[in-house]
Amino acid sequence: MGTWSETALRDAGLRVTRPRTAVLDVLVEHPHATADLIGHEVRVKLGKVSKQAVYDVLAACVAAGLVRQIEPAGLPALFETRTGDNHHHLVCRACGRTTDLDCATGAQPCLTPSDDAGYAVDEAEVVFWGLCPSCQLNRSLAPNVRSSA
Amino acid sequence: MGTWSETALRDAGLRVTRPRTAVLDVLVEHPHATADLIGHEVRVKLGKVSKQAVYDVLAACVAAGLVRQIEPAGLPALFETRTGDNHHHLVCRACGRTTDLDCATGAQPCLTPSDDAGYAVDEAEVVFWGLCPSCQLNRSLAPNVRSSA
DNA sequence: CACCGTTTCTGGAACGAGTCAAGTCTCAGT
DNA sequence: ACTGAGACTTGACTCGTTCCAGAAACGGTG
Prior knowledge:
The structure is a homodimer.
Chain A: H1 2-11, H2 18-29, E1 33-34, H3 35-46, H4 51-64, E2 68-70, E3 78-80, E4 88-92, E5 98-101, E6 120-131, H5 133-141
Parallel strand pairs in A: 4-6
Antiparallel strand pairs in A: 1-3, 2-3, 4-5
Helix pairs in contact in A: 1-2, 2-3, 3-4
The first copy, chain A, binds a DNA duplex through helix 4.
């Protein structure tokens, strides 16, 4: 468990500390965790870690390219360790569950806007919104849940 | 301008009130406005409107499909009146300027994930991140700006 | 045109996510 | 071990947004 995170940190030229390895370990166990959940889980492992430390660690890892941050509308930011392959996400409107998704057509047709209006584009972010399987079930059983729009 | 907003409200079955028409008018003048900017502009037109009224109006219009809300990571929510054509957005990392963009390939290849993991997908959201023309200029002149609008 | 029930608006307090600042501690190279 | 840059702690704070209770405006009726 601890091994990948240590190596990754060292390879990225970052210092290896308990909070850092713990954060990365949590991220491996929970592929789309919020800062809050990460803090909670890290505290379970290490006893006491400040919110600020969690944000610092995450920021450092994001800067080093070890971690990717996504921010779906209305949800707190999520962090994941799958970086570099520019995959997309499927987010449930009801429960917020997030699932990875490889790019629709293998290549990235989406990544090249037809008319970039003079912008220097460096990233394309694609989010699919819908209902996850279990929320579809709950929805049909209990029709008065807060709906999508 | 004042006319369209009234008609739109009436057609959507919403009451026509001063704050509502004013909000829609502002939205026509500023195609990607924040709630805050809208409140400010509406206050210029009408003298005094509460923040809450602005949020209520926007929520009602979003629910009625008159207005679309987008929430680019790290920026406050933006509102626009172009609805129904599922266009995408180009957002400047430096100044937050947002530009509409028709879907890259005319059709929507992005809208149909290859594997939807059982989700009932109802919307695909695409955001391109980059630097707008003027920020590219500023950036090359003053390489360490850390600005936001 | 005065009444009434709804819907909308006001003002202020509250919220959660995230950030800032200043001081203390810890890792890694000598 | 020693030391200095970098990491962590604490706690207050900002910002966008939402909640709440009450006041006002709307518009269909008698």
